[in-house]
Specification:
Blueprint: E1 29-31, H1 34-44, E2 50-51, E3 57-58, E4 66-69, H2 78-90, H3 98-117, E5 122-124, E6 129-132, E7 146-147, E8 152-153, H4 162-167, H5 169-186, H6 191-196
Parallel strand pairs: 1-4
Antiparallel strand pairs: 2-3, 4-6, 5-6, 7-8
Helix pairs in contact: 2-3, 2-5
Length: about 200
């Protein structure tokens, strides 16, 4: 069998509480309650509409600048993230070889999540608020559409509750893992291709 090259990167033992910088092109909104967060999510889902190269209308949503009261959410460390991934890998019924399971785990943890967010759900804005990690290349019309550790494309995955994707790192990691596995199955078990094509949208 052809060996899959995963390009493993050794992660940090803990996720740094990184302080975000202010982007003048983003409108920041403070969210202090769960009700406000749900309302703000629904307001943002239809934002940032554009026409793609095929002439199709795309509504990615825009979740940049979302500042959430620290009491409402939790920043996980690497060990907590790894624990969630291990649970998902161990629960795979259609992958029986322990070596294959380990390859999937290493790929998702040390290639996909490292590349997508450096294991960050939030950055610390100040003493009271965390800023949600959202895609922000500065050049894409779809900036802001992907959120959290797994950078899940909210509007592309209505099966996932965006409130849970934001407030629960576990839900975000599990969603990203499910997206990777869907891509892996669609690519007939080619892990390298599934990982390369991962963009939080499957």
């Amino acid at each position: 069998e052809e060996k899959i090259n995963i390009n493993v990167i050794k992660p940090e033992n803990a996720v740094e509480d990184r302080v975000s910088t202010i982007n003048p092109n983003i409108k920041y909104v403070n969210v202090d309650t769960t009700e406000q967060l749900r309302t703000e999510i629904e307001r943002r889902k239809p934002l940032n509409e554009y026409i793609n190269e095929r002439g199709q209308k795309v509504v990615p949503g825009d979740f940049r600048g979302l500042l959430i009261k620290k009491e409402l959410v939790t920043i996980p460390n690497y060990q907590q993230i790894e624990s969630v991934v291990s649970e998902k890998v161990n629960g795979l019924a259609d992958v029986r070889d322990p070596a294959d399971k380990e390859k999937i785990k290493e790929c998702f943890l040390k290639k996909v999540l490292k590349q997508e967010s450096e294991y960050r759900q939030f950055n610390s804005r100040d003493s009271q608020y965390y800023e949600l990690v959202a895609s922000n290349t500065g050049s894409s019309p779809a900036d802001g559409c992907c959120i959290g550790i797994s950078q899940v494309f909210v509007n592309a995955h209505p099966e996932f509750d965006p409130y849970n994707l934001i407030t629960s790192y576990r839900a975000n990691v599990e969603a990203g893992f499910n997206i990777l596995m869907s891509s892996l199955r669609a690519n007939n078990g080619d892990l390298a291709k599934a990982a390369t094509g991962y963009r939080g949208k499957g």
